[in-house]
Design goal:
- By secondary structure, this protein is an alpha/beta fold.
- 55% of the residues lie in helices and 13% in strands.
- The chain has helices spanning 9-15, 21-33, 41-47, 58-64, 79-96, 105-120, 133-145, 157-168; strands spanning 3-7, 37-39, 68-70, 125-130, 152-156.
- It has a five-stranded parallel sheet with strand order 3-2-1-4-5.
Length: 169
């Protein structure tokens, strides 16, 4: 069984700098469980900043440490990828009561990346770590409608980090 661990911007923002105890707890978890968090390229773009005061963004440190990697671009020519992307955008828009075209595409890209790997058979189970409840619930709901309900788990990023930190105490 191959598991894929997909992470959003919020998880890495919540982790903070590599010197932070939250970051260190996630790094320990990843090393102990042989997990590398995969980020859609849209998420990576959100995490990189053009700020001369920051020598290396924390996400680049995470990549250097094999804690994270950036996925190849999404294959929108695959119908399931496009349907899932659109479906999650609509789900989030309805949950947040706003137009779908105002939903960040990075949120929907989490589920689209899961769909791409599940449909290709390169993953049999997917964990989506996000701090955005609507994005996580939308991913589970829309992927279930595509027949992947038993293969997808939404992991609340804030709870995940807190649970790791409480395990350290």
């Amino acid at each position: 069984m191959s598991a894929l661990h997909i992470a959003d911007t919020g998880l890495f923002v919540a982790m903070g700098q590599p010197s932070n105890s939250r970051y260190q707890a996630v790094r320990r978890f990843a090393r102990l469980n042989d997990v590398t968090f995969v980020l859609p390229d849209r998420v990576y773009e959100e995490l990189t900043v053009n700020d001369p005061d920051i020598e290396e963004p924390p996400i680049d440190t995470a990549i250097d440490e094999d804690l994270a990697t950036v996925a190849a671009s999404l294959e929108f020519s695959d119908p399931v990828v496009s349907r899932v992307m659109d479906g999650v955008q609509r789900y989030i828009a309805n949950a947040d009561d706003r137009p779908a075209d105002e939903v960040e595409r990075a949120d929907a890209a989490l589920a689209a990346l899961a769909a791409q790997h599940l449909s290709a058979g390169t993953a049999t189970e997917v964990y989506i770590y996000t701090t955005d409840i609507a994005a996580g619930e939308g991913a589970e709901t829309v992927l279930a409608s595509e027949g992947y309900g038993d293969s997808v788990t939404f992991v609340n990023g804030f709870r995940f980090i807190e649970n790791l930190r409480s395990d350290d105490s």
